[in-house]
Write a structure and sequence with these properties.
Layout (H helix, E strand, L loop, with lengths): L2 H5 L3 H5 L3 E2 L10 H13 L10 H20 L7 E4 L2 H16 L5 E5 L8 H10 L2 E5 L1 E2 L4 E2 L10 E7 L13 H11 L3 E5 L11 H4 L3 E5 L10 E5 L1 H4 L12 E4 L4 E3 L13 H17 L2 H20 L4 E4 L2 H7 L2 E6 L4 H10 L2 E2 L1 E3 L4 H6 L5 E5 L6 H24 L1
Parallel strand pairs: 1-15, 3-4, 3-7, 7-8, 8-9
Antiparallel strand pairs: 2-10, 5-6, 9-10, 11-12, 13-14, 14-17, 16-17
This protein binds pyridoxal-5'-phosphate (PLP).
Pyridoxal-5'-phosphate (PLP) binds next to helix 5.
Length: about 400
Amino acid sequence: MNQPTLRKDFPLINRLPLVYLDNAATAHKPQAMIDALQHFYADSYGTVHRGLYALGEQATSSYEQARATVAQFINAATEEIIFTKGTTESINLVAAAWALYHLKAGDEILLTEVEHHANLLPWQWVAEQTGAQLVFIPLDGKNYVLQNPAAYVSSKTKLVAVTLSSNVLGPVWAAGDLAVLTQRAHEVGAVVLFDAAQVVSHAPIDVRSLKADFVVFSGHKLFGPTGSGVLYASRSVQGAMHPYQRGGSMVYEAWFDHAIWQDGPQKFEAGTPLIAEAIGLAASVAYLQKNIDWDLLHKHEAALCRELIKGLKTMPRVTIVGNRERLATEGHLVSFVVQGIHAHDIAGMLSNKGIAVRAGHLCAQPLVRALGHESLVRVSVALYNTTAEIELFLRELENTIALFNQLVEQS
Ligand code: PLP
C-alpha cells in the first residue's frame, strides 16, 4: 500500500483545497469507482433479471458479479448478499422481514448504549409493534468499554443487535467479549446482527469468523456510491425471513390472490434493484482488494489518531471523549469537546479554513447525552489522509479557540 499514490486516485480529495476529516460520515470516491458508474451508464446500461437482449443480459451479469465480489470480500456465499441502499435500510429490512414475525411480548432485544440511531430506532419500532423489550449493554463511561456484555443475554433474548465499532467512540469491545456474546446468544437461540458500518473501510470483515446471522454496512462509507448497502443474511436465517417489499422480480409465480416468492436474495430485492450502485460498490471493493494492505492501513490510521490525540492533549480546554490508549493504537476517529465553545461553532469556524469535521450528536444522541454532552466534534480519517492534514487541523483548531476567546473577551 503506497499511501501518497493512493491519495491521487481520489479526484475530489486532490482537486479541492480541502482537508476532509469526516470519513466516518461518508468517504470520498476513487476514480476506478467513478469510471465503473460511467461505464455502466454510458456503455452498458440495462435492467436486470428480465431483459432477453444483450444489454439486459450484460447488466444482469455485472449485477450478479457485483454480488459475488462483495460476498468474497466478507467471506460470505454469494446468495447470502442482499443489496440495500445502506446500513439503515439493511437494519430496517431485518426489523420488518425477520423481527416482526418472530418477536412477541416478553421477548428481549439486546442492544448497547453506543448504538447509532440506525440500530436503535428500528428496534424501538419493533418493540412497539410486538411488545418485546429493549435491553441495553451498559457503557463504562470512564474507560469507554461495554461492560460484561454476555451477562445481559437471558432465555428471553431473541435478538442481539450491536455495533462492531462506535461512530462516536471507536473501539468499545474488550478483547474476546464479542465472541463470547455471540456464542451465548446462539446458545439461547437468539439471532445476532452486527452493524459493521464503522469497520468495513478500516479492517477486513469475515462473516464466518464473526459467526453472525446478519451483518450490515453502507457502500458510501466504503468509497462506493450513495444508495449502495449490504445486508449479509446467513442461509439459515434467510429461511425464517419474509419479503421486505413486494413487487416485480421477486416471485416464482403470481396469481390474482397470492404469490410464491423466490428463494435467496431476490426475495428481498423487489422492484428494479440498485444496479449501478451495486456495480459501483463492487468497483470500490475491487479497488481496495487491489491496493490495500489492511495491516498497513490500520497502522496508518492509528498513527493519524495518535497525532491527533497528542495535539489535542496540549490544548487546555479540550477533552477527548473516548479511550485514548485504544484510539491511539486502533482508532480511525477521535471525538472531543471544547469547554465553553459549542461543537457547531468549532466546525463552522474550521469550515471557513477549508477543514471538514463533523459536529453534533452524531446520530447517537442517547449516548452523547449519557456521556454528559449535548454535542461533540468528531475527526475521522481514511486511507487518503495525511499527517500534514492532521497538523493543519490542530493548528487551525488552536487558532479557532484563540479567536473565540478573543471574541468573548471583547463582547
Ligand atoms: N451505523 C453506524 C455505526 C454508522 O456510523 C452509520 C452512519 O454513520 C449508520 C449505522 C447509518 O448508515 P447509513 O446512514 O449509511 O445508512
